[in-house]
Design a protein that fits this description.
single chain; about 250 residues; seven-stranded mixed sheet; about 20% strand; elongated; transmembrane; Electron transporter; transmembrane helix; Thioredoxin-like_sf
Length: about 250
């Protein structure tokens, strides 16, 4: 992923060595533990990450429920992009996981209410609370690292969203601050493995590629033109070789 943002003024208090540890880099084959014990902030009931996903592709947002500088825009723009996909809410899950174990259910509910308002009914976010040990297990599996700044009592954390397949596999790391409905629809179609999106969406994926540096999908025009150029040159070379051989045969 790209650059890391800090919540609050934490970046000003952390040294470069600390900020260098803030990243999201899922290892090959990374998979979120679906049996992870969590608490649903809305109901207060214990559940698991897998039950929150509900067998669907999911946009997972690790957030600080009291962070207004980065996390509120991340949530708002992610919800807006999900709504703009045009996909039914049953086709995906929007799951938030608190990165500060001190945050309680009231903080999570307040973030949802103040940031999404009535939009929450259309995208149906699930805000989850986790213990220290569960958070360490989840972030370790996902390659996600945030740094706490005791001086400002805040976290420096990646401005990133992880797109999970229904089995918990990390399909993509996306930039929630740059997401569009089209990007997210393509990502969900890709992660849904035929269960999300239309045939047209799957055909569109053939012409788009994922830009890991920007966390978005971009047209494969340059690659297509390059391949077309190579094929054209090869065809011309074969034609010239065939005509040359034909001319030599006539001279003989």
């Amino acid at each position: 992923m790209g650059l890391v943002l800090a919540s609050g003024p934490a970046a000003a208090r952390l040294v470069q060595a600390d900020l260098a540890r803030v990243a999201v880099a899922p290892p090959p084959g990374a998979r979120a533990p679906l049996d992870l014990a969590v608490t649903d902030a809305r109901t207060g009931q214990p559940t698991t990450l897998g039950q929150a996903l509900g067998g669907r592709a999911a946009l997972l947002l690790p957030v600080d429920y009291t962070c207004g500088n980065v996390c509120d825009p991340m949530l708002s723009m992610s919800a807006g992009a999900l709504a703009a996909t045009g996909l039914p809410a049953d086709d995906y899950a929007l799951v938030l996981v608190g990165i500060d174990p001190r945050d309680d259910a009231a903080a999570a509910r307040r973030m949802l209410a103040e940031t999404l308002g009535d939009r929450a009914t259309s995208v149906r976010p699930r805000a989850l609370l986790v213990s220290d040990s569960a958070l360490a297990r989840l972030t370790g599996a996902l390659g996600y690292s945030a740094v706490y700044d005791a001086g400002t009592d805040s976290f420096a954390h990646p401005a990133a969203a992880l797109l999970l397949a229904a089995d918990g596999r990390v399909a993509r790391v996306l930039s929630p601050l740059a997401l569009t409905g089209k990007d997210l629809r393509l990502a969900l179609t890709e992660a849904g493995e035929g269960r999300v999106g239309s045939i047209a969406d799957r055909l569109t994926l053939l012409c788009y590629g994922y830009d890991a540096a920007r966390g978005v999908y971009t047209p494969l025009i340059q690659q297509i033109l390059t391949v077309a150029g190579i094929v054209t040159i090869a065809a011309i070379a074969l034609l010239v070789a065939g005509l040359t051989r034909l001319a030599r045969g006539r001279q003989a």
